[in-house]
Amino acid sequence: MSRYPLVVVPALYLMTEAAGNNLLAYVESGGTLVVSYFSGIVDEHDAVHEGACPGVLREVLGLTVEEFSPLLKDERVRLTGPDGSEPTGDVWTEFVCHAAPRPCGPTPADSPRAARPSPGTGSAGAPPGTSPPAWTPRAWTRSSAGRGSAEQRTDLPISSRGWIRIVTPINVTNNQCTISINSDANAGNWINVDELTFTSGSTGTSIHGVGISSLAKSEAKGGVYRTASGTTGDALSILKSYGMNYARLKVWVDPADGFNDKAHVLAMAKRIKAPGMKLLVDFHYSDTWADPGAQTKPAAWMGHTYSHLKADVYDHTYDVLNALKAQGTTADMVQIGNEINGGILWSEGSTSNWSQLSGLLNSGYDAAKAVSSSTVVALHLAKGGDRSGTEWWFDNAVANGVKFDAIGLSYYGYWHGPLSDFQSTLDDAASRYGRPVFVAETAYPFTLAQDDSLENQIDTTGELVSGCPATVAGQSRWMNDVASIVEAVPNGRGLGVFYWEATWTAVPGNGWDPTDATSGNGWENQALFGYDDKALSSMTWFSHR
After folding, report:
1. Is the pLDDT of residue 471 over 50?
2. For residues 340 and 324, what is the distance between their CA atoms, to the nearest angstrom?
3. Low-confidence winner among 87-91, 254-258, 282-286, 328-332 (lowest mean pLDDT)
4. In angstroms, rounded to a whole number, what is the distance separating the alpha carbons of residues 118 and 499?
């Protein structure tokens, strides 16, 4: 059987509980569009197999009913083996679209195809001889468990609670391309795939970043970092060797322990920029942690009027960024505030007073642009799976004239909901506000054990994300899933991901509380260095497109 160059890919809904699944679309020499399904296990427990029905082809190809007739034969969909027999064991089976146009039958009520309008008309590919070299297949998927094989370009995230869209770039040669969906799931698991498209263009992310604010203090207190083979080395060099290209540093105004201040940011910036990495500076506008639960003014700013606070924000932002520029380490990106769901500099800058909050945020924006017009200015919220909350916040920001270039979200799967909610929030933010988006913070545990006396933030199996165990493999899986969601943001607006505090290992004296040298670290099981100080193989997520 000869196969024509694949110039179209049908939208397809697939649901199966079998293991070892593989999906393939091609055109036979006789002109019949075929969807092939290879199952390593075929038995009476396999669920639903649905071919590319004419109704779906109409959506993808824009063909009329009359135009189906040259492609489709007979009047039914049949499932047979190569010799026409029922499938048993490891055999190839074919789903062949046949004749009479009819509605596709059963599509889940929550399927993207059921929930959204038709993708539109027109071929997903181009005639032979005219295909550009780069194409991007996109598909919606959900599954209960299981991963792709080593040959896959994009792993399918586990998401039994909602649909997820994934993308992967392909270089087409000889005007021909085979797209397959493979699963190594266990018996009893399942997967749905719907609305597969094939379009010109490519995908990828530009930020493969790490928050390393804890590093300077860790090193000062005796922290050691080793390569995977055990050789002692520089933490930044080790991370960069795996593909890290961006570092995120927080800056506090006058911290009690003397770290994360202007001087330490300047020193660390030289180390970041020397090997060619980029720098994000995260202004907390506080002497300590700023997050949705606390936005405490610096001690030196207490008692200042609103007008004075606006000047404080401008002067502090300008001072730090201009000093970075003066030493040749200009910030590539700046955050005006950290996880500012409730505003900054409470109570004057809380979200209960958007007029004042907008003035404070714009003071920071103006200062950043005064130092370098090319520096990207981002606003950063927590709760990356909260679409309605994100819309509420940025709708108010836009209505009050807040200036910003990008949107950063913190997304921790054990706190902020399923990947499907995160994708919905991220895609909506990019589209609704016309700005690029990125993950400012995420992380995942490689173990539930602790390496110091302080109980870890995540230390029970009940807190974990389904399908991602607290292992090095689970940590790697989580990061690749998050990166795939960012990569799939439409129109190339997904910038990338920052891993939060990859170097925060359990070093005595480097606890969470800058006012208490004896405070412990509740995050060491989410670092990217193990309890033996060696680089974990989960660092390979940096090589994600």
Report:
1. yes
2. 24
3. 87-91
4. 37
For tokens 């639960």, name the residue.
293
Selected catalytic residue, list 195, 348, 441, 501: 441
Quote the CA–CA distance of 62 and 97 in Å, as a whole number. 16
State the Cα–Cα distance between residues 502 and 539, nearest whole angstrom.
Answer: 9
430's enclosing H/E stretch is: helix 419-433
What pTM does this model have?
Answer: 0.78
Would you call 67 a catalytic residue per the annotation? Answer: no
> CA torsion 417→419→420→426, rounded to 10°?
90
The residue annotated as part of the active site, out of 17, 59, 339, 348, is 339
Which residue stretches of 127-282 are H helix? 215-220, 235-241, 262-273
| Dihedral (Cα; 382, 545, 495, 194), 10-degree rounding | -70
Burial class (CB in 10 A: 0-12, 13-18, 19+), 396: middle
| Bridge partners for 269 per DSSP | none
Q: Is 94 a catalytic residue?
A: no
Judge contact between 375 and 406, C-beta under 8 A. no
Residue 238 Cα distances to 208, 269, 477, angstroms:
14, 17, 20
Q: How confident is the model over 204-243, as pLDDT tens digits?
A: 899 999 999 999 999 999 999 999 999 999 999 999 999 9
**Given a cut of 70, is residue 529 above it in pLDDT?**
yes
